[in-house]
Inverse folding.
């Protein structure tokens, strides 16, 4: 297929998405638009998390830490100064954070700052860990996530501790969340198909051979990890501003667990899989609220059990690992060729495709 | 071209190489033969910087490359096709080949070399968009060699290219290696299949428990009584 055809098809579908968002912003009630926003945020977080876990094959357990970094960065930057004096009543906010705030028009600056701070966090964790082979990254990133939460609880003059920050301007809307999701997908997809991405997948397949081919393994992993951290931070910022409050409990290890479920269910390494399961997961999380509500079986009354949803998800994960190990998509990736082939418009001979991409 | 002097390597507590010295002249095929655990692969891996040398020196075109990071060594034109057909199973055949050219930036040259690899291994062309892991053992070995050639190495190091291949394929692989050598690539070959490896070598070394015990031209070693007894079955 010609590159121009692909660009046209992608542009058309983006326009359709824009139309859908435009319609949704006017017509969805606040509950449904909250769900739609959350789905997009989960897409951003999952696709970026998948880059390091699925594409490079390095187990990271710290996306909650990066999201927390992003969330706090955005919250601190966007909370109005007057509000800061009210919220930080235990200990006044440290200078200069307490004396300025970004106007709502500069939301994008806050989002970028959130991504950059999280990216720097990823760099600091990755610098020592990514030059080692083995499970060190998993341990270090797990520790990193916990450290961020401990810091958030105790750095009263920056994070307001366990009380958290309230009264953030509600700037997140469908345009921001879905726009970010689209940008994340495009960036990650292009990265995966670039020379660096090929090197990342080569590292996942066989690290020693990749090294022997002249790939700078540490640097390549680092690029993936920092990009992953950046978009993780942005998604954390979007989530924080969406619910207009942040406290250390928002980004506990459960967040990482949710994201792990999403990328494993979707298929490690598959962007399509991450996107689909992020949506499915968000919707299921809402539908399964019923299992947490108290209900009666006629003769006995069962009280509501908070957290019951996670039991269902865990069971789902176990079943999937037993019978469908590769996830929904495996390593399959959506492409326009595939769609056209399915529609029967054109029979494309798989083995004799003309080379489309540049060397 | 390549000069290794008194190379010593420890693997954990094991003294794997006890002062290996060897030389590869430009344009030659040099074979390194020996039994299992003699240190053949370790020698290659430490030349490539995949294993850190404890002492000794490795000179490539007069430049000290001892313990440089691997990607720096590859940049200088030394490429290894690792033992056991380390191809990338989830990458397509074409992507596998492109990874071989990872450090090159000259697109037209890469395209030209792709064509050359197809001519050398027509079967790879038929399987271009298939995943590497779905190839047969022999095809994977061809892919591994082709991938190494894509880096346009000045010196191509091969670790057991005939491992696990049917006799007919072994012959084919060795014929290809000679062809590559004739086209101007220097080859450093590590093999258990001593007979074939010595036959095509201008210079050869016999390794035993981390030491070079014999050196000479390929044909000399082929006719050497000790070598015949130990490695060629009488």
């Amino acid at each position: 297929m010609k590159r121009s055809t692909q660009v046209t098809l992608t542009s058309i579908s983006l326009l359709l998405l824009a139309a859908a968002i435009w319609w949704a912003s006017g017509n969805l009630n606040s509950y449904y638009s909250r769900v739609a926003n959350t789905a997009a945020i989960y897409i951003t977080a999952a696709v970026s998390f998948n880059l390091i876990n699925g594409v490079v094959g390095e187990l990271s357990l710290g996306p909650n830490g990066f999201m927390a970094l992003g969330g706090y960065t955005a919250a601190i930057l966007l909370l109005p100064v007057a509000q800061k004096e009210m919220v930080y009543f235990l200990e006044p906010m440290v200078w200069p954070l307490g004396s300025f705030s970004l106007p709502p028009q500069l939301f994008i600056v806050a989002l970028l700052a959130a991504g950059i701070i999280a990216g720097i966090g990823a760099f600091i964790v990755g610098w020592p860990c990514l030059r080692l082979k083995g499970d060190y990254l998993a341990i270090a990133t797990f520790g990193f996530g916990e450290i961020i939460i401990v810091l958030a609880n105790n750095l009263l003059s920056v994070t307001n501790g366990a009380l958290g920050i309230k009264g953030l301007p509600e700037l997140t809307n469908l345009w921001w969340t879905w726009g970010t999701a689209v940008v994340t997908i495009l960036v990650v997809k292009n990265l995966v198909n670039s020379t660096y991405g090929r090197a990342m997948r080569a590292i996942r397949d066989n690290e020693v051979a990749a090294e022997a081919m002249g790939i700078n393994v540490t640097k390549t992993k680092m690029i993936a990890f920092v990009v992953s951290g950046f978009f993780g931070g942005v998604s954390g910022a979007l989530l924080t501003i969406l619910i207009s409050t942040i406290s250390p409990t928002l980004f506990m290890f459960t967040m990482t667990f949710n994201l792990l479920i999403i990328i494993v269910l979707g298929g490690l390494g598959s962007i399509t899989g991450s996107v689909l399961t992020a949506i499915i997961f968000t919707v299921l999380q809402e539908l399964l609220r019923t299992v947490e509500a108290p209900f009666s079986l006629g003769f006995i009354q069962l009280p509501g059990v908070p957290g019951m949803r996670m039991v269902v998800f865990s069971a789902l994960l176990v079943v999937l690992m037993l019978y469908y190990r590769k996830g929904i998509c495996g390593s399959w990736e959506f492409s326009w060729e595939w769609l056209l082939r399915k529609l029967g418009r054109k029979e494309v001979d798989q083995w004799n495709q003309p080379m489309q991409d540049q060397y | 071209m390549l000069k290794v002097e008194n190379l010593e390597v420890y693997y954990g507590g094991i003294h794997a190489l006890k002062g290996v010295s060897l030389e590869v002249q430009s344009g030659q095929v040099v074979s390194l033969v020996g039994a299992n655990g003699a240190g053949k692969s370790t020698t290659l891996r430490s030349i490539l910087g995949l294993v850190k040398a404890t002492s000794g020196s490795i000179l490539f075109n007069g430049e000290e490359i001892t313990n440089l990071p691997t990607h720096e060594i590859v940049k200088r034109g030394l490429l290894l096709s690792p033992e056991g057909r380390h191809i990338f199973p989830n990458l397509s055949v074409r992507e596998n080949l492109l990874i071989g050219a990872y450090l090159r930036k000259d697109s037209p040259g890469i395209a030209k070399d792709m064509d050359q690899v197809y001519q050398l291994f027509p079967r790879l062309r038929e399987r271009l968009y298939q995943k590497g892991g779905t190839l047969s053992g022999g095809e994977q070995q061809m892919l591994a060699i082709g991938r190494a050639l894509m880096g346009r190495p000045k010196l191509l190091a091969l670790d057991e290219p005939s491992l696990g291949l049917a006799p007919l394929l072994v012959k084919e692989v060795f014929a290809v290696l000679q062809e590559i050598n004739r086209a101007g690539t220097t080859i450093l070959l590590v093999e258990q299949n001593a007979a074939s490896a010595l036959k095509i070598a201008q210079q050869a070394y016999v390794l035993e428990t981390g030491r070079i015990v014999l050196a000479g031209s390929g044909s000399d070693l082929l006719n050497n009584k000790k070598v015949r007894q130990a490695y060629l079955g009488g």
Q: What stands out?
A: The first strand of chain B starts at residue 2 and ends at 11. The two ends of chain B are 34 Å apart (CA to CA). Residues 31 and 189 of chain B are 5 Å apart (CA to CA). The interface with chain A takes residues 48, 50, 69-71, 74-75, 79-82, 86-91, 94-95, 98-103, 107, 110-111, 126-130, 147, 151 of chain B (CB under 8 Å).
